[in-house]
Amino acid sequence: VARVTATGTGHASGLVDELVGVVGERHVLVDPDMTAGYAVDWTGRFRGSTPAVVRPGSVEEVADVVRLLARRGIPLVAQGGNTGMVGGSVPTAGEVVLSTRRLDRLEPVDALAGQVTAGAGVVLDRLHEHAEAAGFTFGVDLGARSSCTVGGMIATNAGGIHVLRYGSMRAQVVGIEAVLGDGSVVEHLAGLEKDNTGYDLAGLMCGSEGTLGIVTKARLRLRPRFDHVVTAMVPVGSMAAAMEVAATLRATVANLNAVEMVGRAALDLVADHLGVAPPVRAEVVLVVEAAAHHDPSEELAAGLEACGELAGEPAVAVDGAARRALWRFREGVTEAVNAAGIPHKLDVTLPAAALAEFADHVGDAVHRLDPSTTTYLFGHLGDGNVHVNVIGLAPGHDADDVDRAVFELVVAHHGSISAEHGIGTAKRDFLHLNRSPAELAAFAALRRAFDPAGILNPNVLVPT
Ligand code: FAD
Ligand code: 2HG
Ligand code: ZN
Predict the structure, then answer these.
(1) In 3D, which of 228, 255, 241 has the Cα closest to residue 286?
(2) Cα separation of 69 and 92, whole Å?
(3) How far is the CA of 271 from the centre of ligand 2 (A)?
(4) 258 Cα: distance to centroid of ligand 2 (angstroms)
(5) What pLDDT score was predicted for residue 197?
(6) Helix (H, G, I), strand (E, B) or coil at 443
(7) Is 56 in the pocket of ligand 1 (CB under 6 A)?
């Protein structure tokens, strides 16, 4: 094992030996070829460097690692699948990376309680398979399912495509095990649905972005597995009309699972990227889904009928392969955008009454600032969440100006600058647009209480 060189980090040597003493030589990576993948995010926009990637295999090892880093005052970044979108999972300021991937134990499903206990490093796909084999499903699903982890999803309070039915990650978490910044372990995993014995530490960890503790395990609610699913791709003439369709479907389709949106520019981009023509094309396309113990096709058809005139005939699919073919035009947008350039990703949420107006103007607002940009809109329309992806910023242009223009438009419409991806390093300078000085002071006080040495992801959210 190579020694830590102090390049840019100021870390004392001997750290690696101490880390090796805790987790073993195989689980401390220092060779830059081995650590490189941990030091850059999925989009390639956020890059850093790290003196070491440490991969503990148990809660005790996590606690020992945190304790030794706290003693030396060395900051760390927790990292799960590294699929986060806001630069929160990479060591942008030379932090040690604590990878949770080895904490991947999945306990048997507790069918009586409808719950399961999962290690923080369990990947979402595996959790879904495990739940389904026991006759359940897990309520959160998202495009990064083959890489994102339970711990990362809790730390970001991930949303995804089923929020309108089951809520985001916070609504799935009944209990937690976590290591706080001083190395102490909090464990509350009994999974009692009712438990008013003080502060909800599990709830606090949701959306905390690795600043309050390292999540090592979680007790998660499961939902019924539905074997009948119908998916439709619905063409709509405008964003205002799409909002009406979403509202009508929510009011009429009891088994509604998803109402997702792809704007015209994003649809053309993803179709080009896939090399496949979409079955429907319009100003806005919705991917809607219903799932139930019986075939929900008629229920969804009646809901669509109640929506009045659409911009064409919906494409409908019930078998797995055909449904997946429709979903590719929605879930493939992120990859298609990435293939076209390094994006600025803005993940905003608006009140229902303001969303169409925002969506109709945001592209122009960005374009006025930087005419070389292209703006793509897509997202989770059923719960008011629009992803605004901007590519093609002119070199030398201050990218913050684009972010600021979008966020000011969001705030003018009483929306939020982050719906589901979090704040990370990307948006921390804009957090004050949504949070008052009193709220930010409370955030900072919470951080100090949970992490007195200020070592847990110090550069995200409200920097320590
Ligand atoms: P990471 O990226 O590794 O980390 C994210 C944050 O959590 C960082 O701040 C990190 O420090 C912290 N963290 C990680 N593990 C822990 C832990 N055990 N304890 C404490 N802190 C921790 N997100 C959505 O919400 N909805 C979507 O629909 C969605 N779709 C996506 C589609 C694609 C193709 C991609 C690439 C990403 C998508 N994302 C989406 C973003 C991302 O997948 C989520 O934010 C996810 O929750 C991150 O999980 P992760 O394990 O990759 O976390
Ligand atoms: C999605 O909904 C993800 O597809 C990713 O949250 C959004 O790429 C993005 O900006
Ligand atoms: Zn999303």
Answers:
(1) 241
(2) 17
(3) 17
(4) 15
(5) 96
(6) helix
(7) no
Give 153 Cα–ligand 1 centroid separation in angstroms: 5
Among residues 99, 91, 146, 145, which one has the least CA distance to residue 121?
A: 99
Best probe residue, ligand 1, of 61, 126, 142, 457 (max atoms within 8 Å of C-beta): 142
Neighbours of 224 (CB within 10 A): 12
CA distance 272 to 30: 40
Q: Which residues contact 86 (CB under 8 A, 6 or more apart)?
A: 345, 418, 421, 422, 423, 424, 425, 426, 427, 460
Q: How far away, in angstroms, is 159 Cα from ligand 2 center?
A: 10
Residues lining ligand 2, Cβ inside 6 A: 85, 143, 334, 345, 347, 379, 387, 389
At residue 13, the pLDDT reads 66
Work out whether strand 173-179 and strand 214-221 pair parallel, antiparallel, or are unpaired.
antiparallel
pLDDT at 464: 73
Report residue 301 as tokens: 């058809």
Report how far ligand 2's centroid is from the alpha carbon of 379 (Å).
7
Give me the torsion for CA of 140, 144, 146, 150, rounded to 10°. -50
CB of residue 214 inside a 6 A radius of ligand 1: yes
Report residues of the chain scoring pLDDT below 50.
1-12
Query: Containing H/E element for 116?
Result: strand 115-119
Residue 381, phi then psi, degrees to nearest 5:
-65, -30
Q: Which two tokens stand for residue 438?
A: 């009193």
The first and second tokens of residue 170, run together, are 């916070």
- Determine the distance separating the centroid of ligand 3 and the alpha carbon of 386, expressed in angstroms: 8
Ligand 1 neighbour 148 (Cβ under 6 A): yes
DSSP labels, 214-279 = EEEEEEEE-EE--SEEEEEEEEES-HHHHHHHHHHHHHH-TTEEEEEEEEHHHHHHHHHHHT---S
CA distance from start to end of the chain: 31
Task: State the residue for tokens 């005139």.
Answer: 309
| Number of the ligand 1 atom closest to the C-alpha atom of 77 | 11
Which atom of ligand 2 is closest in space to residue 347's alpha carbon?
A: 10
50 is written with which tokens?
A: 């790290």
**Which pLDDT does position 397 carry in this prediction?**
75
Q: What does the pLDDT read at residue 5?
A: 42
Complete edge-to-edge strand list for the sheet that includes strand 76-79: 28-29, 53-54, 96-99, 76-79
